[in-house]
Amino acid sequence: MSDHSRSRPSSFRRAAAYLALPVVVGLAVSACTAQADTAGTASATAAAEADATYYASKTPYHPFQDPEDYSAPPDGYRPVFVENVARHGSRFLSSKKYDDLAHQLWQTAEDAGELTALGEEFGPELESLIDVHKRSGYGGLSRLGAQEHHETGRRLAERNAQLFSEAADDGAQMRIVSSGEDRAEQSAASFADGLREVEPKLEIDDAGADRDLLYFHKSEANSDYQDYLEDDKRLADALDAVASSSTVASAARDILEQIFTSDFVDRLDDGEFDFVDHGKGKTHLDDVASAADCLYNLYMIAPGMAGEGDWDFDRFIPPEDARVMAYYSDAQNFYKKGPGFDGDDITFKMADVLLDDFFDRIQDKIDGDADLVGDLRFTHAEVIMPFATILGLPGSTEQVSEDELFSYEDNPWRGEKVTPMAANVQWELYEGTDDRYAVRMLYNEEETDFKAGCTPLEKGGHFYDFDELKRCYDQS
Fold it and tell me: Which residue positions does the secretion signal occupy (predicted)?
């Protein structure tokens, strides 16, 4: 990026520094020519997103399919092994930043008598959220987050009740590993509690942390990826184009004017204020865009903390503005952690280590080298997103050229679908006759096809021969 000396919330730039390029959310826009063809585009998108909440990647988890609707395995096949990778569940704010900056801004406006009637209500709501963090700390799993994983673990055990009962009798173990971060470890513990609710005799082995496997985005082995985040001009230009767009700027101002008077927002836009967080002391709120981003991050996190308080931050952000902010959040993740630019795998090739591990654990089971009934992994969105892309999961494969900008109209990438809180990928291994093995994948607990080019056992089915998957994913 052009300015690394100070961090702004979500890399927003000053709203006043508009580029000539108008980024219209929902339209395909060229970053070089600013030309868009809008014919016949709006209605399909509006229909598809009519029920959207616009919490983006902070959307609380729900399974995407009723287990009663799952396909039966092919004749002669029985389950013998399960494995997964899951994002941690809903959590508190990761650090003292957005809440602190928003409170500094609100307090300044209150002292100046520059709050709207709705703004008068915002302060107490925010202070209640801050009080919870004072008691519970930052970054940990919320009650809802624990419940999300407990229920996912319970459903997994119910679906494989006979397998796990036999495993308990035979002394086979369920292995659990995490990134080592608190919220990932807490998610693993809650998931294990859900398993034990169904099969209390199942032995669960806590294998500790494997950061190379489940925190690879921070690994020294991926320094090229970290260089991309810091220095890639394409990335900087794309994020600047999104953040500096007239659409984002308009939504940001509209959000602030729900809470603050227009005169106060003008003062902020003129650069009169520069607030720094009292957490790490690295993030500044000094313009309209960064202020709106703070408020949007509170809007996103609050639903996942429903067990700690009765908040309603939705009333402070109009739905049409929340959609724009969700687009901005999704655009950042798309370019930083998702499909990214045409022909470039820098954002997702590092997930190879996790894909290899999925195949290796199944091969170990087939070879009889591991006395495990399952292998469970708990990690973060930074791992789930590139893994979804390298697997070829729905909504995670479409890249953009350098002279185009990610848009909702032309690209299916959505944080709430790709990596909501507690997002997960599960593989189930089934043993058939003649030493044949089949695999079914559940993505957020929905039967999901493997990538294009992989052929299922039956046309239109969701079970794949393991050897076919090895061929399809180039696993020797």
Answer: 1-36
Quote the CA–CA distance of 419 and 395 in Å, as a whole number: 11
Q: Do 126 and 204 sit in the same domain of this protein?
A: no
List the single range of 35-39, 54-58, 239-243, 274-278 with lowest mean pLDDT.
35-39
Angle between helices 262-269 and 246-256 (to 10 degrees): 130
404 occurs within a structural domain: yes
Place of tokens 């394409």: 234
Query: Tokens in use for 320?
Result: 């049409």
CATH (domain of 178) = 3.40.50.1240
In the chain, the number of structural domains is 2
CA dihedral 232, 234, 240, 243 (to 10 degrees): -110
As a 3-state breakdown, the chain gives helix, strand, coil percent values, each rounded to 5, of 45, 15, 40
Distance between CA 319 and CA 324 in Å, rounded?
A: 9
β-sheet bridge partners, residue 437: 431
Is residue 52 one of the residues assigned to a domain? Answer: no
In a domain, 47, yes or no: no
CA 78/CA 81 separation, integer angstroms: 10
Residue 53 has pLDDT above 70, yes or no: yes
* The two three-digit tokens of residue 220, written as one number: 């020294």
Domain range for 71:
57-91+145-219+346-472
- Rounded Cα distance between 27 and 40, Å, is 11
Residue 229's pLDDT is what?
A: 98
Q: How far apart are CA 31 and CA 14, in angstroms?
A: 19
CA angle in degrees (0–180, nearest 5) for 306-312-314:
115
The sign one gets for the Cα dihedral 297, 303, 305, 310 is positive
Based on the domain organization, do 237 and 318 belong to the same domain? yes
Cβ-proximal residues to 440 (8 Å cutoff; 6+ apart), any chain: 71, 73, 427, 428, 430, 447, 462, 463, 464
Residue 192 makes CB contacts below 8 A (sequence gap 6+) with: 153, 174, 176, 204
β pairing state of 275-276 and 284-285: antiparallel
- What stretches of 355-459 adopt beta strand conformation (E)? 372-379, 424-431, 437-443, 446-447
Buried b (16+ CB within 10 A) or exposed e, 240-263: bbbbbbebbbebbbbbbbbbbbee
pTM, whole model, 2 decimals?
A: 0.89
Is the pLDDT at 156 greater than 50? The verdict is yes
24 found inside a domain: yes
How far, in Å, CA of 456 to CA of 114, rounded? 62
Per-residue tokens: 415: 């944080």
Token reading at 268: 């902020």
